[in-house]
Amino acid sequence: MTNAVEQDYIKVIVFQLADKEYAIPVSYVRGIEKLMHITRVPKTPRYVKGVINLRGVVTPIIDLRERFGLIASENEDNVRIIIIQLEDMEVGFVVDSANDVLDIQSTSIEQQPTVVGSLEEEFISGVAKLDKRLLILLHLNKVLNPLG
Amino acid sequence: MEVNQYLEMFIDESKEHLQACSEHLLELEKNPEDLAIVGEIFRSAHTLKGMSATMGFEDLADLTHKMENVLDAIRNEKIKVTPEILDVVFESVDHLEEMVQDIANGGDGKRDVQSTVELLKRIESGETPSEVAATSVVAPVSDEQAASTSTTELVLTYDDFEKTVLHQSFEQGYKAYEISVALREDCLLKAARVFMVFEILEKNGDVIKSSPTVEKLEEEQFDSQFYVAYISKDTAEDLQKKLLKVSEVEKVEVSEIATAVFQGVNGQEQATTPEQTAPVQEAEQQVKATDKKSATINKTNVPTASKTIRVNIERLDVLMNLFEELVIDRGRLLSIAAEVNHSELSETVERMSRTMGDLQNIILTMRMVPVETVFNRFPKMVRQLSRDLNKKINLEIIGAETELDRTVIDEIGDPLVHLIRNSLDHGIESPEIRRQKGKPEEGTVQLRAYHSGNYVFIELEDDGAGINRDKVLAKAIQKGVVSLEAANSLSEKQINELILASGFSTADVISDVSGRGVGLDVVKTTIESLGGNISIESTQNVGSVFSIQLPLTLSIISVMLVEIEKEIYAIPLSSIIETSIIRNSDILNAHNQKVIDFRGKVVPLVFLEEVFEVPRKELKDDEFHSVVIVRKGEKLAGLVVDSFIGQQEIVLKSLGNYLTNIFAISGATILGNGKVALIVDCNALM
Fold it and tell me: Rg (Cα) of chain B, in Å, rounded?
């Protein structure tokens, strides 16, 4: 029974970036942190903000706005760092704000319509419609992979 | 769960015994006549058998048993040592290693060894000419409790292992005694007296067995009398006199164990194989006893044996991690104390720092492991490879006792395997060619390890063909590793090191052993990731030396903290020669490169600000520059920074698996204020 439930729903963390809402399955998320001092790492792509001291572990930080080619945000009050673990990599994403934890039905996830044509298109694995909200599911492998 | 607790110990010890087996087998191969070596192998195999039977790994015990039978036959000169037999024994050891590995990986240690078992059996029976149990023997089995004192009958019972030891001591001209020591009834410190008796005995010989066991004696769990089996060159009277000097000893009886009894026993031992598949509990006792015995034997080789305990490596790792946390906090405390400027606080912090310094030394040395643990698998590998390659190769190992941090040890194995394979395959020539060149047919590969300063050097030297620089250069140009123009300006050493570049392989035919062109560049990257470096010296037709320099430890290093604009970087003290302040006018221009004259040497300047693209709010135009002079091998460079902060011990942290291969950054550390500082990789800046 429990298996059937797990298949039907996925729990996601919802966060805001510019005017859109994005979602990452909770299973990848290790924690959400407030913005802290980031040490710049030279000679890395622009979207790599640097590294932070996450309770003794040096963790790299990616600015998702930069990664998706959006302009930098002015307001930093709600900025959060979402710590992601993908395979053996631990990375933090800087997002405008982390809003919610939601269960979304697998059936409500649709393939990304190809017409969107924005820069972040290649990082999207699907879209979920939830009442009036539209959640964009991130393709974490693609967000992290093409480094260097 | 109970078994689990012993499992790790079992695996460790099995590995040790198997290692001992292969080492001695290799020795035996060189001196097939030396039966003492067979005894050593037999002993290791026997212990292993007992242990695996106890732990319930029947297959392991069974194969060891078969192997042991063959060894025993060799030992009793029923079979002569031939390379064929040794091959089979080597094969069995390989199987055993696989089994133990399987057990270590959570398996049940089962493995199809039918063919090997068959071979062992055939050697044991088919090639043994004489009947096994030819001699009729008086069994020396008598009850321990029936403490008989007659000179010919034995009080103690002996297991196979002890018999072996006794038998060997006879061969080496020792005498064996059974000593009965009676303490006075009113003796208060029985354990102390026992200790004194043992001390006297162990000065001039070895205690093989005692009844009750040593533990029981130490716990005073005996009445007033105990028995000891002892080998020594002393005479019975001398022994008696010496022991009677111990106060509160009432009576000492020394009776010699007759040589004949035990020579017979050896024959008899052959016949009584059922005894060897003893029930589990008995085997367990046996194991305990044998372990104790081997410890005693070892003592003869190392007179000042210190007491050691086995500690799980994970615990040491945890200890190290906790200590690293402390180091970070110490940094924080130091900076707070400096801010607060409270004398008592500063004093306490300083004291704590000193204690922590000592603690750090102890923890670091605790984690040091002799390189032997890596080196000891090479002799067998070289033996196998030289057979595969039809070459004659002698591997010499020097300095196996040199100690290195465990983290380095874990990583260094594979690169060394690559290098040795490379030397064997490409370096050492085939016997015919060697003869033509006027070299001895047998090639020599020497593996050396030694300490120097804060580094450990591991060198691999062969007397083979050396590097054919023309061939290397031609290949490098063909493969696009270097350009034609660049090739002309390369030094000999640089050409040698081209073989470490990726996508490079000079072997015309790809062999199984090496030559896929992936090996050596992996070696280079691995060693550099460990903070070390590798260099090659080679003379054609004389040989090559691969020299690896490694840091003693990886986890805690001393650095100089420097500041550039608002960013703090750490420069490892190990590469710093000195710091200095230079004037603008001291900077000279040579070939578009800014240089300074540093103690008569022209040293190029590297502006870290430019290398690291540090964002600056306003242009800095100082007349003075702070320069850190760093060194890589012979080369010097001056790193220009804004200001020096000071020297500090830091904990090295990796940048994780996402940020890899960042230019000129070798890692990160956490500073006293909780911020991350990056560690400059000086080697990359040269």
Answer: 32
Out of B76, B422, B496, B683, the active site residue is B422
Q: What superfamily does domain A2-143 belong to in CATH?
A: CheA-289, Domain 4 (2.40.50.180)
Residue numbers in B near A90 (CB within 8 A): 656-658
Q: What 8-state DSSP symbol labels residue B525?
A: H
Q: Which of B193-207, B408-422, B493-507 has the lowest mean pLDDT?
A: B493-507
Number of alpha carbons in the 13 Å side-chain half-sphere of residue B515? 13
pLDDT computed for residue B565 by the predictor: 87
Model confidence pLDDT, tens digit, residues B125-145: 765 433 333 333 333 333 333
Domain boundaries, chain A: 2-143
Three-class secondary structure of residue B400 per DSSP: coil
Overall pTM > 0.80: no
Choices 2.50.20.10, 2.40.50.180, 3.40.50.720, 3.10.310.30: CATH for B556-685: 2.40.50.180
User: If you classify domain B370-551 with CATH, what class do you get?
Assistant: alpha beta
Structurally, at CATH architecture level, domain B2-125 sits in: Up-down Bundle (1.20)
Q: Note whether B93 and B113 are within 8 A (CB).
A: no
DSSP notation for B336-348: HHHHH--HHHHHH
- In this prediction, residue A94 carries a pLDDT of 93
Interface probe for A, chosen from B658, B662, B681 (most Cβ of A below 10 Å), is: B658
Q: Which residues on chain A are in Cβ contact (under 8 Å) with B567?
A: 39-40
